[in-house]
Structures are given as structure tokens and as C-alpha cells.
């Protein structure tokens, strides 16, 4: 019996493996051969150029090679075609890695999934797509993950805010779309958001709407508390807010004719109790907050195939970047969630730690170099200061005898000096 169970388990495992399909995978491990699989759009003549590189820091010099944006302030439009398929009745998984090693300030890091009939040579920002997914950063206010679905020709943005990673390391982004109309977004193989297509997108009209015929009854009392009708204001309640200062005295130099009638300054009244308000009691007629009745929306029609795209066939990178340097790699489009997770662990998971270690080491070297440069500048400045002091001319001694002018009688000068001294 145990043998039979084991055999069944093996067959089940094989069946899962056979059923799983990878429609597109790209790791850029064959040098410049990627250029035969990817096509740059000709819609504009000044699209930014791509280069194959692992970047300034990496976990593996070969495995981490990907396509990098290389020109600042450019639009980029690049796509790759694969065998068309439909995701009807099965999950759709879109996954890739992004590294903003340039510390991006404004630019996209997302992908678009297009219908197979896309003209790749004419692809541009307004080309209709099925799905747009991935990080988008612009300044401090926009740091989010886009999840946009096209339904009947209209693009619908997710209503939730999903924060993306904004550091300079490589990160793994995964979108899972299921045939039960649920979805999941993962970053670095960890779930960050999930839900249903109907709840988190305004793809379909709402199932119900407020009844236009319904109105709040005139006698509907929605006050939870009311004034106590038996409560009355005390007779001594009314006290002025401010009173004359009883300790104030008229100044001795006060002149009524000049200064007018003297009045003492006002001070807060310690007996002032504020505006009187009756005590609150529970309202015996309270009916609660009135809720507007809803009716079935006549414009709503259920659709169990919102998730379905019939002719998936192109993956594109259609984006704008102010500061270039983003590296895209490890693309995967398939229908098996587990396989995508394992692929992520084998790629991003295997190199993330070495990549961070290399980046940290580079930053430490740069820090040391800056310190040495600052120290060198300071030492140079100090040395120049010392040289300036050494070059300063010595001041003449005012008390030293004046140099004898040519042709003058030294004795005469001495006699004149003595004469002057004696006259004082």
C-alpha cells in the first residue's frame, strides 16, 4: 500500500511538472545574442540605448548581467516576442528583477504585457497592452508598484497603494493572477498585497447603487444625545469674562485733563464659568444613522473572465527615465507559482547577499578615499599657510641707527642728533 502511495505521489509530481508551462524566460546569458530576441521600437528616433552589464556591483559577474538603461532623460522602448497563449483556466505569473543602481530619482522600472498582434517596431507609450506591472519612482511622493489591467480597451489602476523598493540593490517583483479572479503581488518572494479584481479595481460597475427614490424621512431623528429638558441654568451663572483689576491704582502722575478718565486694567474673572450648556442625555427618539437604501445596479453585469487575456505574446519595456542605470533581468512568464518562486530563489536569491557585500565594500572604499582626499587637502592648506608665514619680510627696527647717506659727514649727523636730544 505504501509503495502504491509513493508511486502515486511520484506520478502526481511529474504531472504537476508536465502541466507547468514557462512561456517566456530571459536571463541574458549568451552575450550579444539578446539583440536577436529583442527589438527596439522605431516609433521615435531618439529612444535611449540599452547595454548588457552586471552593473557596478553584483553577486555574480555573469549571472547578474541584464539590460541597463544607459542615457539620461530618455524614453525607452524595447520588446521581445514569444509563442502566443491564453491564460484561461490557469494562473498567470509575471516576474522579473530590477536594480536601480543609479539611485533613481524619477523613472519607471515596470514591464508591459502586450497582445501578440503588437507591431513591435511601432511600439510606444500609447500602444494598447494587457498588463502593466512593476515599480515606478518619481521624487519623494511617488514610490509605488503599478498593477494595471486592460479590460475592454480601458486601463484600470489598482486602488491600493503598494510601496516599491527604492534602494540601489536588485529586487524581485512577482505578479500572480488566478482564474478565480484573485491576485497577489510579491516583492523578493514575499507577499505584499493580495485581493480580488472586483474589489481592488473599478473594472466593473458597482453591484449596487443608492436607490434614487429613497429619501430620509422628515421625522427621522439621528441625534444620539439631546439637551436635558429638566436642566436649568443657575441664577448666579452669568458672570463677566473679564473684570477690572481690584489691585490696580491710578498712577501718581495721571492727569485727567491730559490723559482722560482713568480706568483700571481688565483681568480674567476667576468666577467666569463660560457659556452655559444643558446636560446631555440619551435621546429616547434616536433611530440611529440613516442609511441610504441600495438597489441592484442595472448597469452591473457579472464577468467571471476579467482575469483572462486571450492572445498574450509580447513583453515590453516602455518607460521614461531621468537618470539612467536601471538593470532588468530574470524575466519569467508562466503559469506555475511554485516554479516562479524557485526560479526567483535560484537567480535573485543566490546573488542578493554577495551583491550587497560587494556594494558595502565599494562604499567603504569610497568613504576611505574621501577621508584621505579631505585629509590631503587639509595638509596642503596647512603647508601653504606655513610657507606664507615664512615668506613675510622682517620689519625694520625703528631704534636702529639710520644708514649713512653717501657724502654726509658722520660727525655732523652725530652732532645734530646730540643737539636735538639736548634741546629736549
Give a brief description.
The protein is α+β, with helices and mostly antiparallel strands. It has six helices and 22 strands. The strands form five sheets. Strands 1, 3, 4, 6, 12, 13, 14 and 22 form an eight-stranded antiparallel beta sheet that branches.
Features of the shown structure:
single chain, 424 residues, alpha+beta, Jelly Rolls, eight-stranded antiparallel beta sheet, 6 helices, 22 strands, 22% helix, disordered N terminus, disordered C terminus
Protein model, in words:
The protein is an alpha+beta fold and 424 residues long. The protein has a domain at 24-204 and 305-365: Jelly Rolls (Sandwich), CATH 2.60.120. Helices cover 22% and strands 29% of the residues. The chain contains six helices and 22 strands. The chain has helices spanning 2-19, 197-200, 256-259, 337-346, 348-391, 410-423, and strands at 22-26, 38-40, 50-53, 66-69, 74-85, 92-100, 106-108, 111-115, 131-138, 142-151, 154-157, 170-177, 182-187, 190-196, 208-210, 225-227, 242-244, 266-268, 280-282, 294-296, 312-321, 326-334. Strands 1, 3, 4, 6, 12, 13, 14 and 22 form an eight-stranded antiparallel β-sheet that branches. Strands 2, 5, 7, 8, 9, 10, 11 and 21 form an eight-stranded antiparallel β-sheet that branches. The longest helix has 44 residues, at 348-391. The protein is flat and about 100 Å long. The termini are far apart. The model is unreliable at 1-17 and 400-424 (pLDDT under 50).
Amino acid at each position: 500500500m505504501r509503495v502504491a502511495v509513493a508511486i502515486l505521489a511520484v506520478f502526481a509530481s511529474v504531472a504537476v511538472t508536465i502541466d507547468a508551462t514557462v512561456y517566456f524566460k530571459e536571463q541574458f546569458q549568451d552575450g550579444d545574442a539578446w539583440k536577436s530576441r529583442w527589438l527596439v521600437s522605431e516609433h521615435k528616433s531618439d529612444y535611449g540605448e540599452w547595454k548588457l552589464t552586471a552593473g557596478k556591483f553584483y553577486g555574480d559577474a555573469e549571472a547578474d548581467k541584464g539590460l541597463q538603461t544607459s542615457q539620461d532623460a530618455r524614453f525607452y522602448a524595447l520588446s521581445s516576442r514569444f509563442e502566443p497563449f491564453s491564460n484561461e483556466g490557469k494562473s498567470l505569473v509575471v516576474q522579473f528583477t530590477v536594480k536601480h543602481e543609479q539611485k533613481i530619482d524619477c523613472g519607471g522600472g515596470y514591464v508591459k504585457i502586450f497582445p501578440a498582434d503588437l507591431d513591435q517596431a511601432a511600439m510606444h507609450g500609447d500602444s494598447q497592452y494587457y498588463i502593466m506591472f512593476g515599480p515606478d519612482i518619481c521624487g519623494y511622493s511617488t514610490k509605488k508598484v503599478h498593477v494595471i489591467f486592460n479590460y475592454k480597451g480601458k486601463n484600470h489602476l489598482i486602488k491600493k497603494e503598494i510601496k516599491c523598493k527604492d534602494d540601489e540593490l536588485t529586487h524581485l517583483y512577482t505578479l500572480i493572477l488566478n482564474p478565480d479572479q484573485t491576485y497577489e503581488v510579491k516583492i523578493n518572494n514575499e507577499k505584499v498585497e493580495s485581493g480580488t479584481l472586483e474589489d481592488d479595481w473599478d473594472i466593473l460597475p458597482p453591484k449596487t447603487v443608492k436607490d434614487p427614490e429613497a429619501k430620509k424621512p422628515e421625522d427621522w431623528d439621528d441625534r444620539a444625545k439631546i439637551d436635558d429638558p429638566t436642566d436649568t441654568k443657575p441664577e448666579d451663572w452669568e458672570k463677566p469674562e473679564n473684570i477690572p483689576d481690584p489691585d490696580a491704582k491710578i498712577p501718581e502722575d495721571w492727569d485727567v485733563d491730559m490723559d482722560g478718565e482713568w480706568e483700571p486694567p481688565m483681568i480674567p474673572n476667576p468666577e467666569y464659568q463660560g457659556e452655559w450648556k444643558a446636560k446631555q442625555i440619551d435621546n429616547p427618539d434616536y433611530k440611529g444613522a440613516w442609511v441610504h437604501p441600495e438597489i441592484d445596479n442595472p448597469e452591473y453585469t457579472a464577468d467571471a473572465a476579467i482575469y483572462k487575456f486571450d492572445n498574450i505574446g509580447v513583453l515590453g519595456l516602455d518607460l521614461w527615465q531621468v537618470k539612467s542605470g536601471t538593470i532588468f533581468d530574470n524575466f519569467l512568464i508562466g503559469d506555475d507559482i511554485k516554479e516562479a518562486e524557485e526560479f526567483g530563489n535560484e537567480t535573485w536569491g543566490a546573488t542578493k547577499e554577495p551583491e550587497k557585500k560587494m556594494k558595502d565594500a565599494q562604499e567603504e572604499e569610497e568613504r576611505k578615499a574621501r577621508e584621505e582626499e579631505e585629509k590631503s587637502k587639509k595638509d596642503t592648506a596647512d603647508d601653504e599657510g606655513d610657507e606664507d608665514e615664512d615668506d613675510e619680510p622682517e620689519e625694520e627696527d625703528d631704534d636702529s641707527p639710520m644708514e649713512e647717506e653717501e657724502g654726509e659727514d658722520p660727525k655732523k649727523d652725530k652732532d645734530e642728533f646730540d643737539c636735538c636730544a639736548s634741546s629736549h
